[in-house]
Amino acid sequence: MGMKKLEEYRVDFIDVIKRIMATNLTNKGVSASRTESLQALADKIANVNTGKRYATGTGWSGSTGIATITGLGFTPSIVKVKFATGGIGFLRFLIKESAGHYGGYGKYLIGASSKIDNSNHYPDYALINDGSNQILSDGFKIMIGYVDISYGWEAWE
Known about the structure:
The chain is of the alpha+beta class. The chain has two domains: about 40 residues, no CATH class; about 100 residues, no CATH class. It has two helices and ten strands, in the order ααββββββββββ. Strands 1, 3, 4, 5, 6, 7 and 10 form a seven-stranded antiparallel sheet that branches. It has a three-stranded antiparallel sheet with strand order 2-9-8, with no helix packed on it.
């Protein structure tokens, strides 16, 4: 038996590092295998969830007047949508959990809307769970109420 060559130590060392990285990534919910390249494993570190996730973007209400956003990669617990029309700004909010029975109509309050003009900020109406306002598993659907306008949105896990 001879001594190991330096190259054999290097290969063994890299194999140990890959095994540790793959195990730790898998334990954090990221699919990984020690058979992947060291670079591929290192690239997957960015996929480790380090806390609550957040997303933001813009959209167009189209002919339905409903903002539908999917593909977030998480279920939002709070959503804020903002837009303006006719010189009045609007904010719409959705919350993941119902806030209780709304108005005795068998529907649950899931959000609220407010209007902002040059001098006032006042409640608009409650958003109820009527099918047009929903928290989805990977996004949300919220009634804008106006067709063909742009809006901005934010979503928090």
